[in-house]
Specification:
CATH topology: Maf protein
Oligomer: single chain
Distance between the termini: 14 Å
Number of helices: 5
Number of strands: 7
CATH class: Alpha Beta
Strand content: 25-35%
Length: about 190
């Protein structure tokens, strides 16, 4: 089996990939993740997943490389990582009673052969109607300032939502394992 490399510095993606119980290395791709002029958010997401994998392939030419990127949209507008408390409050106020759509682009690049598999998994989250006290309690407890949409579904963020719809719920956390498992199997990796 070729070495498996995760082209990411995300602790969330590392934790998800470790669930497959395969040895892997995580390498930060060190990319500018800014959208190109006029580039649609979905295009940016898919491009970045591939660019992350290709960048890491430069230093790992004999590896299977996983690239992933995620965007969140509320009413068609991009919702980023809040970065601080005030932005997180604003994001959760805007999401209250609404549906937010998360798009997670995934690719698996066989750096040895150049074969690239790709997918994009959509997750729709319906938020409960949230009051200011709920938002403040949640943010104090979870501090999800590095999460698009200001929520961690794998922890207390689950209390903020009415429902989640997806073919692959791990996509919401940033790495769609169901899709990735299929890609790995097509590269000859036996799972479990």
């Amino acid at each position: 089996m070729l070495p498996l490399v995760l082209a990411s510095s995300s602790a969330y993606r590392r934790e998800l990939l470790s669930r497959l119980r395969l040895p892997f290395q995580a390498v930060s791709p060190h990319l500018d993740e800014s959208p190109l002029p006029g580039e649609a958010p979905l295009t940016t997401c898919e491009r970045l997943a591939q660019e992350k994998a290709r960048k890491v392939a430069q230093t790992h030419p004999q590896a299977l490389i996983v690239g992933s990127d995620q965007i969140a949209l509320l009413h068609g507008e991009l919702v980023g990582k809040p970065g601080n408390h005030a932005n997180a409050v604003r994001q959760l106020q805007q999401a209250s009673g609404q549906e937010m759509t998360f798009h997670t682009a995934l690719c698996l690049l066989n750096a040895q052969t150049g074969h690239l598999q790709q997918d994009r998994v959509v997750v729709t989250v319906r938020y409960r109607t949230l009051d200011s006290e709920q938002i403040e309690r949640y943010l104090a407890a979870d501090q999800p300032y590095d999460c698009a949409g200001s929520g961690r579904i794998e922890t207390l963020g689950i209390t903020l939502v009415e429902w989640v719809k997806s073919d692959d719920p791990t996509a919401l956390i940033g790495l769609p394992l169901i899709s990735l498992t299929g890609m790995l199997q097509r590269e000859g990796i036996a799972l479990p």
